[in-house]
Amino acid sequence: MTNLTDDHYVDSAPYDANAETSAPAHPDLDAPNWLLIWRKFRRHKLGLISAVFLAISYLMMPFAGFIAPYTPNERNADHLYAAPQMVHFFHEGKFIGPFVYPETATADLEQFRWVYTSDYDHPAKLEFFCKGGTHYFLGFIKTDRHLFCAPEGATVFLWGADRLGRDVFSRIFYGGQLSLTVGLIGITVSFVLGISIGGIAGYFGGWIDWVVNRIIEVLRSIPELPLWLALSAAVPSHWGPVAVFFIISIILGLLDWPGLARAVRSKFLSLREEEFVRAAEMMGAKPSRIIRKHLLPNFASHLIASAMLSIPAMILGETALSFLGLGLRAPAVSWGVMLNDAQNLASIEIYPWTAIPMLPVIFVVLAFNFLGDGLRDSLDPYSHD
Hints:
mainly alpha, MetI-like fold, 2 domains, 3-stranded antiparallel beta sheet, two-stranded antiparallel sheet, 14 helices
C-alpha cells in the first residue's frame, strides 16, 4: 500500500496561502508595449540605421549656417565651376593639420571649360570658429561665426562650386532646411485633414460617408502631377520665398490627405461596432472623445507608418516642382532649386559635381522608406518575423 505522506506525493512544508502557485509568465507578456516595439525594431538593421541618419539630419538643420563655411548665395567670381577640394593633413611628409591647396582657374578655350591648378607649394591651413558671412544660428541668433573657413587667398569647396561660384556643400546644408521641413509641414496638413474627414465619415456613416467618398474619388481620379503643376503655377510670382514655401507645403498636404482619409474611414467602420465603443457611447461620451480616446489609439501604428512613407513623397514633390521651376525659386535654396540650376546635361558631363544635390534626396527618401518598413513591422510586436 502506498504511503500518502511520502514526499513524492505530499509537500512537507506548511501551506502558505499567499504563495505563487501559477507558472511564471513569459517575460514578453509583462513588458510594456514600447519595449516590445523597440526590441523588434532594433532587429531591423536598415530601419535602425535610417532612424539614426534621419535624426542626425534633422538635428543638424538649426546648425546649417554654422557648419557651412559659406552663406548659401555667397559668390566667388574667380572660381566658377570649381572642382571639389580635398582636405589634407600632411604636407611633404609633415603633419601640419587640416589644410587645402589654393587653386587658380584658367579657361580652356579648346574644350570651353574651366581648368583648375593647385598650388602645392603653399598649403592654406583651415581656420576654425572663424568669421564669415552672416547667418542665423538656431534660426534666430544672428552671427558671423562658422565652424571652419578657408584663409584669405584660398577657398574650401568640399563638393565643388556651381555656375555662379557658390559652394555646393554649403548650399546643400541650407537647402536641407527647406527640403526636410516641407515634408513635416505637408504631413501635418495631410494628417489633420485625413484623420478629421476620414474619422467623421467612418464613425457617422450615412450620407456624410457618401459625400466624403465621392470627394475622395474625384480628387484621386485627377492625375497628381498635372494638378501639382496647375496649383503651383497659380502661386503669384511676386510672393517672397517664405510665402511660396508655405504654399507649396500646403499644396502637397492638400493633395495627400484623400488616401489617408480612406484608410481611416475603413478602419473606423470596423472599430465602431466593437464593444468598447458601444460602452463609451452608452456612458455618454461625445463622438469627438470616442474618436480621440478610443478609435485613434487603435489605429496609431498605421498612422505612424503612413507618416514615414508619406514624408518622402512630399520631399520628392517639392524637389520635382522646384526642378521644373514651379516650386521654390531663387533666392530660396532647396535641393530642388539646386537641381534646377543643374538642368544642363552638357554642364553635368563636364562638371559632374553640380549633380551632387540629388544624392541627399536619394538618401533621405530611402531612409524614410526603410524607417517606415521597420516601424510597420515593429508596431505589431506580437507578430512573427
